[in-house]
Amino acid sequence: MTKYRVWTAIALLTAVLAWAGCSGEGGTTQPVNDILDVQDTQAREVAEEVKEDLPDFDAIDIPRLDAFEYIPQPGEFGYECTTNTDCDSGFCVPTPDGAKCSRECVEDCPDGWLCVAGGTGPDIVYICVPRFLTLCNPCRTNDDCSPEEFESTTLDLCLASDDGSGKFCGADCSMDPEVCPEGYLCDDIQTPG
Question: Which terminal residue of the chain has fewer beta carbons within 10 Å of its beta carbon, N or C?
Answer without folding.
Answer: C
